[in-house]
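ok so i was messing around last nite and threw this chain in just to see what happens. nothing serious, just curious
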Amino acid sequence: MAVTFGTSLPSRGEMAGPDQLRSVAQRAEDLGYDHVWVSDHIILPKKVASFYPYAADGVATFRP
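result:
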């Protein structure tokens, strides 16, 4: 089985605009990458207000 290489495209911020995504994808192709991946979350909230469901107090027990 051959090894393949890929990269993930940005999904937010300054590099997530159409022109920037096209540029990053083109550069990956120029470098011989086999894949580019995109997020399936097209709208991301600025802040998540829901509680962590796996703790009684609703607070996550880890740091992201």
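not much to say yet. The chain has one domain: 1-64.
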